[in-house]
Write a structure and sequence with these properties.
Two copies of one chain form a homodimer. By secondary structure, chain A is an alpha+beta fold. Chain A folds into two domains: 160 residues, Nucleoside Triphosphate Pyrophosphohydrolase (Alpha-Beta Complex); 72 residues, Orthogonal Bundle (Arc Repressor Mutant, subunit A), CATH 1.10.10. Helices cover 29% and strands 30% of the residues of chain A. In chain A, strands 1, 2, 3, 4, 5, 6 and 7 form a seven-stranded mixed β-sheet that branches. Chain A has a three-stranded antiparallel β-sheet with strand order 9-11-10. The first copy, chain A, binds a DNA duplex through α6.
Chain lengths: 249, 249
DNA sequence: ACAAAAGTGTTATTTCTACACCCATGC
DNA sequence: GCATGGGTGTAGAAATAACACTTTTGT
């Protein structure tokens, strides 16, 4: 069993990743079930002393999902004292999640940087648990289990940020397959926003962003009119991400 | 001379505050001129082990400006390795900014949480330097001196964030005097955005937000028509901050 | 009475919203 | 041929943008 080597890590600093996926018309998050416990946790990690924090977040993402070079954004820094719960490290030792030698390291004041990622469900290999967890799985946002420490709060904040970002940025690349239909894209938006949108207006608005390419193919096999398959125009997509949609002033 | 007691501080974690003020139709930032150096720095500090990071940022703000309970927002976490410049702590000791006993503590990997604040220039007492600085002063954004380490980058990022926030949130409270005229408010927006706006359309849009109260008084003393004085409707202002202006979806 | 800046109104254009109808496909 | 969901158009309302004239004030 390989426990972590705390010597090479920045003390008191952790990373928590809220990894969103979209599948079967539901928004899901990747969660880890802690070893010997009913509690779940966000995938996370620590920061090696010679690495950028942003890069370490990308490592966490890749370790759990196998994907890299995709949307991953720092969204909040969690620095409250109340995050540090008395007796928590002791519990971790008891459950064999960390080694006794490391307990002292975990007793220190910890702060955490929150990241959220959008990943295409289908591109992800079987989610990988680590040595602290017995399971790593996609869980629907509507059906969340009890989470460790303040991870519930972190998740909520990430979701809230994502909803706000919808107004300024395109989403969908990385969250949808390479090609997708307009109704699928709409379902994604509706799921993130938690409300229904008008089909016709959605289409018009989305097309006006000018980030979609009509592939001239259709998705067949359904017992109704075959919908057109679109893909993102990556150049325009990334430009839109940079510049944002907002034009208020 | 009182140097810091590093024992009670969270190691490797600092706070940097970008404190914006608005004066004489210019956006300004509060900067500290380092002792025995031509370099300037953002006001900042460290985090006591038993304090929330957000609260410590408020302490930094109050120490420098004397104001409290005003807009102060965490905007980014800076965690790149490149922030930690070889030989920097040594320089700090040489310039008597930190004590030799503390040099080792400063040699550790440091990460930083960036905050920005909006403060009303006139409410601020004479900006207070600390034991690391010989001067604390308002500096125009158009006329920035050379800044220490990555502080220039942090400042730039804060300004960028502020510009984006304009679209979602009201600003002005804390940045303008208690009462102000519509042209003054417009000047603030123009300064932050770095572009001119149409007087008539600005007024209409601003009034449509429904966060202003007409005080029925005028600012006299100018050799032209006396402009109406407004103040913010605080309840509605804070509601607008919560909910945001954006209606995109 | 004049310069300088505040205040107000209107119109054309664009965007948003709320709709209803037709079209393909598999059963 | 019918149920299901995809695709398109349009008219009214609202927001935006561009623009010109009148008012107040100190000198």
């Amino acid at each position: 069993m390989t426990f972590i080597n705390t010597d090479e890590l920045v003390p008191g600093l952790s990373i928590d990743c809220v990894i969103f996926g979209f599948h079967e018309y539901e928004l899901k998050v990747l969660l880890m079930k802690m070893k010997n416990s009913d509690l779940w946790a966000l995938p996370g990690g620590f920061v090696r002393k010679d690495r950028n924090v942003d890069d370490e977040a990308a490592v966490v993402l890749e370790l759990r999902t196998g994907v890299r070079d995709i949307f991953l954004r720092q969204f909040h820094f969690f620095g409250n004292v109340s995050r540090n719960v008395d007796g928590h490290p002791e519990q971790l030792v008891k459950k064999e999640i960390i080694s006794p030698e490391n307990q002292a390291w975990f007793e220190e004041r910890f702060v955490s940087v929150g990241y959220y990622a959008l990943v295409e469900h289908s591109k992800v290999q079987e989610p990988q648990p680590d040595h602290t967890s017995e399971l790593c799985a996609w869980v629907s946002l509507n059906d969340l289990p009890e989470l460790m420490l303040d991870h519930g709060l972190i998740l909520k904040k990430a979701h809230h940020t994502l909803r706000l970002e919808l107004n300024n940025q395109p989403i969908g690349l990385n969250l949808l397959p390479e090609t997708f239909t307009m109704p699928e894209l709409q379902a994604l938006y509706e799921t993130v926003l938690g409300k229904e949108l008008d089909r016709r207006n959605f289409r018009r608005k989305m097309l006006s962003y000018d980030i979609l390419i009509d592939t001239n193919e259709k998705r067949t096999g359904t017992s109704h009119k075959a919908p057109t398959l679109y893909k993102f125009d990556r150049d325009k997509y990334f430009t839109a991400m940079q510049d944002g949609f907002s034009t208020a002033w």
